[in-house]
């Protein structure tokens, strides 16, 4: 379950995901869900463990994230509309 997604327009969706993961005792991660190159690395995980799957299972990680700019959301919507034309 991804707790942090930097491309989530409304941060409440990150909170909903975290509450769901907590309720069902799911492992949590973070990711940028980048739509543009400059968004890569806006969110992710840090661990000392060389086995990333093991780190997630053991919850041996720290998550970080920042929200993407509103302009990125507008650009994504514009591209989707242009592809439909």
Question: What do you see in this structure?
Answer:
Helix content is 39%, strand content 18%. β1 (2-5), α1 and β2 (29-31) form a beta-alpha-beta unit. The longest helix is centred in the last third of the chain and has 15 residues, at 70-84. The chain is built from 3 helices and 4 strands, in the order βαββαβα. It is α+β, with helices and mostly antiparallel strands and 85 residues long. It has a two-stranded parallel ribbon. It is elongated and about 45 Å long.
Which descriptors would you attach to this protein?
85 residues; two-stranded parallel ribbon; two-stranded antiparallel sheet; 3 helices; 39% helix; elongated
Helix proportion of residues, in percent?
Answer: 25-40%
The spatial strand order of the largest sheet comes to 1-2
The assembly state of the depicted protein chains is single chain
Mean pLDDT: 81
Q: Characterize the largest beta sheet: strand count, sense, and whether it forms a barrel.
A: 2 strands, parallel
* Number of discrete helical segments: 3
Number of strands: 4
Poorly predicted segments: none
Helix-strand sequence: EHEEHEH
Amino-to-carboxy terminus distance: 35 Å
Class computed from helices, strands and strand pairing: alpha+beta
What is Rg? 15 Å
In percent, how much strand structure appears in the residues?
15-25%
- Overall form: elongated
Short note summarizing the structure:
With 85 residues, this protein is α+β, with helices and mostly antiparallel strands.
